[in-house]
Amino acid sequence: MNSGETATAGGQGNENGIITGVSLPSFLQVLELEKNSCMIDVEAGANRGVLYMKDGALIDAETDFNVGLEAVYAICSWDKPALRVGKFYDRVRRIHKSLTHILLDVARQKDETKKPASPAEQPAVMPDQAASAAPDRPASARTASVPEDIGRKYPMVGRCMELLPSIPGVRHYFFLNRHGRIIIQSADNRKIADFITYSIITGLQMGETLDAKGPQLVLLTMENYEELLIIPRGGVIIGLLLEENIYVPDVINQLQAAMNI
């Protein structure tokens, strides 16, 4: 789809180019997939806003009261929006989050605004079901258990995992061997595990080129502002996905004894 071209994405258009009956998040995902550059006028009752897409990325938004991310969240909360796609005008980029993360935030906000069910309507949760009821809780809020065979083969992994529940801000952990194979992880996200390995290999190659030691640690800021801390130690690569605004040296200090630094 080219700039300025009208698309319905399952909705209904009229002779004025207005699209109705379409989910705005779904429509944005179509534009992202097609790497479209355009401006989207959004109207819902007395509310009006504008979204700006450049090469499939949402770069800015504005309403009468907000700009940037706050404007996106406001626009996505409106019921029964009418959309009009127009020509893209270059903007200062105010939005740096990926569309996926933005839409996850939007969905989370909608869930939080829903009226909670009354006690009589809430299903009973047995104690042994409690752990599976919240699979996305941070690793620090869960009890980290180490399979016996892993604890024997990788003592450092066992020691680290005993400490992880007491360290605030650790969202997920990844332990890999020196060949990049996963030993144990708290999230089913193979891409992060692969990226951890790639980062260490790249660091080692740079060290060889510069005749220097390989990386002692790698710290990366993710698109959603989480921190990815990577520490190679004793034949094991440790990857910790940390919540936003966590003071990383505190995390490292608490793991020092387990890693024998």
Structural notes for this entry:
This protein folds into two domains: 12-112, no CATH class; 139-259, Beta-Lactamase (2-Layer Sandwich), CATH 3.30.450.30. The model is unreliable at 1-11 and 118-143 (pLDDT under 50). The chain is an alpha+beta fold. Helix 6 crosses helix 8. Helices cover 33% and strands 24% of the residues. A hairpin with a 2-residue loop joins strand 4 and strand 5.
TL;DR?
The chain has two domains: 12-112, no CATH class; 139-259, Dynein light chain 2a, cytoplasmic (Beta-Lactamase, 2-Layer Sandwich). Helix content is 33%, strand content 24%.
- What percent of residues are in strands? 15-25%
SSE ordering: EEHEEEHEHHHHEEHEEEH
Which segments are poorly predicted (pLDDT under 50) over 5 or more consecutive residues?
Answer: 1-11, 118-143
CATH topology (level 3) name of the largest domain = Beta-Lactamase
What's the pLDDT, averaged over the residues? 78
Total strand segments: 11
Percent of residues in helical segments? 25-40%
Number of domains: 2
Please state the CA-atom Rg, rounded to the nearest Å. Answer: 23 Å
CATH C-level of the largest domain: Alpha Beta
Basic shape: elongated
**Can you tell me the CATH architecture of the largest domain?**
2-Layer Sandwich
Main structural class: alpha+beta
Whole-Å distance between the termini? 55 Å
Strand order in the largest sheet: 1-2-6-3-4-5
Task: Count helical runs.
Answer: 8
Under CATH, the homologous superfamily of the largest domain reads: Dynein light chain 2a, cytoplasmic
